[in-house]
Write a structure and sequence with these properties.
This protein is an alpha+beta fold. It is built from six helices and eight strands. It has a single domain (8-205), classed as 3-Layer(aba) Sandwich (Chemotaxis protein chec), CATH 3.40.1550.10. The chain has helices at 8-33, 49-55, 84-95, 105-134, 150-158, 196-205; strands at 36-40, 44-48, 62-72, 76-83, 138-140, 144-149, 167-179, 182-194. Strands 1, 2, 3, 4, 5, 6, 7 and 8 form an eight-stranded antiparallel β-sheet that branches. Helix 1 (8-33) packs across helix 4.
């Protein structure tokens, strides 16, 4: 466990920040994709490492994951994980090709590029919102994309953190794409893993120690 106790009030504040970041991300995605995009954060909660794997479908579940490090006045790691079903659906709607599949090597590079840009916009918007609230200098590294088993993707990000904590902040994210024939909604999970000293820095800056 961390030496800093995260309370429901802290999670409510992170949810509010997440929804502002999601709104900014939706605006940026709508302009980029020329589609109506809506996003919101229905919940923010604290889970164990084991529960983290379960939320992503299990340690052996193959998923699309966008990974980045947080740098600046606080440091840490973020993962955005989508099921392959959600990742394929997002790209199919984006390129208007109902046959797209990441298993098709001929077109997988197009999907990978689009998902990486999605991760760049999502993480940038969320961290920008967190930076505005805390008045801290916070920025992401360039996101990297991996399609692999969840356990393999996130395990290296947990090695150092597991010495201090067994909990992860989960920021549920729901994305709705406006299409000509209706809408398409899918969900992903942001896993926020601040390095242990950063918890206190974040909430002290928010005035909720």
């Amino acid at each position: 466990m961390t030496n800093f106790e995260i309370t429901p009030m802290h999670l409510d504040i992170l949810k509010e920040i997440g929804n502002i970041g999601a709104g900014n991300a939706a605006t940026a995605l709508s302009q980029l994709l020329q589609q109506k995009i809506e996003m919101h954060v229905p919940d923010v909660h604290l889970v164990s490492f084991e529960e983290m794997f379960e939320l992503a479908g299990g340690a052996e579940q193959v998923s699309a994951s966008i990974f980045l490090r947080i740098e600046g006045d606080i440091t840490g790691t973020m993962f955005f994980i989508l099921s392959m079903e959600s990742a394929n659906l997002f790209i199919r709607n984006l390129i208007q090709d109902p046959t797209f599949d990441f298993e098709n090597e001929a077109t997988a590079a197009i999907g990978a590029s689009a998902l990486q840009e999605l991760g760049n916009i999502l993480s940038g918007s969320y961290l920008s919102s967190l930076s505005d609230f805390t008045r801290l200098n916070i920025y992401p590294t360039v996101p990297s994309l991996a399609i692999d088993m969840v356990g393999a993707i996130v395990s290296f990000g947990l090695v150092e953190l597991s010495q201090y904590s067994d909990e992860v902040i989960v920021i549920d994210t729901r994305i709705t794409q406006g299409l000509e024939d209706g809408t398409s909604t899918f969900a992903g999970h942001f896993f926020l893993l601040p390095d242990p000293p950063s918890y206190e820095v974040i909430f002290k800056s928010l005035g909720v120690m």
